[in-house]
Amino acid sequence: MKIKILLALIFVNLLQAQKFYFPKTAVTDSLILEKQMPQLASKLMTQSPLLKLKQTNKLAYLDILLRLELLTKDYKKSNATLADYRKEFADHDMVGNKYIAYEFYSLAKIIEAKEKISFPNALQKAFNTKYASLPDKLITKVSIAVDGDVMAARKVLKETLDKQKDKDSIDYGSALALCRSYLNYKTFSSTKPQIMQLVAAKDGEKFITETKDIKTKNGNTLTITIVRKKTNTSPLPVVLSSNIYAGPIDGYFGKRAAVYDYVGVVVNTRGKRNSNDVNNPFEHESQDIYEVIDWISKQPWCNGKVGMIGGSYLGFSQWAAVKKLHPALKTIVPQVAVGIGIDYPAQNNIFMSYMLQWIQYVTNNKLTDEADFNNAKKWDSINTAWYKSGKSFRALDTISGKPSKIFQRWLDHPGYDEYYQKMVPYKEDFAKINIPILTTTGYYDDDQIGALYYFKEHHQYNKNANHYLVIGPYDHGGAQSFGYTHVNGNPIDPAARISIDDLAFSWFDYIMKDGKKPELLKDRINFQVMNTNTWKHAPTLDKMHTSTLKFYLQDRKGNASVFTQPAEKSFVKQTVDFKNRDQKDTYHAVSKIDSVKTTNSMYFESEVLDKDLIFSGNPAGFFNVSINKKDFDTDMSLYQIKPDGKTFLLSTHMVRASYAKNNAVRQLLVPGKEEQIPIKNSIFMSKKLEKGSKLVLLVGVNKIPSWQINYGTGKDVSDETIKDSGEPLEIKWYNNSYVEIPIYQE
């Protein structure tokens, strides 16, 4: 059994074994509950699992400790712990407003006791003092931070308490969950109404905020939010975001631009907020944004210059905007941009189950359905139910209980066809894009493939493209906000802990206010080499590395090197039974302390590296295979096994074999014939690999509830069911297959 899983099970058992007195009457009597919670929190603070967490995950430890201290009413300590938490989360006070609702609450409690005044009066004093201490860049998100969903918090608390009915004790894990839900409800129910009014009043003192509905030439309605700083009375450049996630975030985007001395404008897509039009995500952005920019450019508060910013869908919308370039649009800053048809709703032509969750998130109402989207238990059960049923991928929306025309329409386009091509620039369209562009993405970004697709296409078709890239150890959120101190549990070099907002708005100053070019942008490609605390700069993506190592699919019998081409051709055979939906996961121990999941994968391990290497770029190469079917979906993972025995995921790649050579045209495989599958669009990363490390390569087949399943019949994969699976898939992985590993040397 995998070592990590075994340890986790032991840990869970310990948590469940630990029991604490908790009277059953607390479930139904709020006064008893209020009396019991401080006592319960106090007991939890001294338990060994929490103390061990301090050594293994300090951020998680501080998060829990902060909540327990609040519940025990040790407000001075909780504020000190919150300060430590913020420092651990990010450098340079970039999260000085995180968990600020807890801070307002604790400061008010201190003032209430000290001055013997009512809680509302104490809360107003606490708010005024804290708000006055915040720099402008941090006040922009205060309204979102204190806008907790009180009804949802109450529901979660009730559900947590219901589990304790007729019990006089509570286990450690359940106790922590109860503490969290109780604190959330208590904090937001007692502070939200008043704090929201106080924030609105402060915003009214600093900003002019307007909301307008405009009509397009086709008669569609779009809601626009405009935010200006009151002290800025002359026309300014405008920073525009096109946002499908209508809600409080619109005000934040507007205020963010305003505090950097721009006019902030946010337009919501069709069907959102005040628009009664049909909401068809991605389909109308190009047309609508052109008209929005035209309207903005004629307003008295605009000096005729417009820039765009935003991440994910908002990054996509900027590429939609330059499909037909408006003269007033001077620059775009697409961050973690969705590559429509490239990495979403399908990655390398494999549709993801997440697409349905996202569709409902943005279409269930005129804003966003946060409760449904964040209901992980619901969506896991839906995806698992589909997987277990063996039904076609097209049935997923029906299984969810809410059929979706959008979901079905997307499935009708498994290749990168005209449906996607008309939404954003395509091929020669990129040659016409002559405005400066700054792209940001990250090694851990879910839309890295999309962000880099636009970058590569722009440079391919426009040799003079004024387009810069910044890429580092950022996830989907970090590459559109700031660099955290840890990502995916890994510590991040101090050099990478930068403000992406500061970078973006210094870029706007450079382009639209004749400012200085941002210092970081020393070349077209600017990448942070993890584990070196340095940034490197290169003119092209190919120059991120200076050489390559070919990792061949061969075992190391007789101490053969995986980095040397095999003398004789052979293969390893893999069998995958698509009918088996109760398959147990398998693991391979890579050291005494760690292992990798090998379910539906073949395992290859390198010799120990005899010197430091810098992995920089993304793996390429070819898989030479023969299968007994017409198609399959490959799944590859490349790991570093560090000298201490811990694993580090360097890159992944998955692709539908029939689309690997051309993502627009399906080319089925011939059963029994050796075929070559190119490795393209794998994940980029740059990191120093220490001497004494090993590399582990896993190659196999995609077969999990998170992605559609390719049964290999050659029919539309979305229509295939488990009845189409036939005989198990048999793959011969030939040892002249190789993954080309990019290496950077000074």
Can you offer a commentary on this structure?
The chain is an alpha+beta fold and 746 residues long. It is built from 22 helices and 30 strands. The protein has a 10-stranded mixed sheet, sandwiched between helices. Strands 17, 18, 22, 23, 26, 27, 29 and 30 form an 8-stranded antiparallel sheet that branches. Strands 21-28-24-25 form a 4-stranded antiparallel sheet, with no helix packed on it. It starts with a helix and ends with a strand. The model is unreliable at 1-16 (pLDDT under 50).
Q: Which whole number gives the mean pLDDT?
A: 95
Give Rg in angstroms: 27 Å
User: What's the main sheet like?
Assistant: 10 strands, mixed
Uncertain segments are 1-16
SS field, number of helical segments: 22
Class derived from helix and strand content: alpha+beta
Binned strand content: 15-25%
Q: How far apart lie the N and C ends? A: 42 Å
**Helical proportion?**
25-40%
The spatial strand order of the largest sheet comes to: 3-4-6-5-7-8-11-12-15-16
User: How many β-strand runs?
Assistant: 30
Principal-axes geometry comes out as: globular
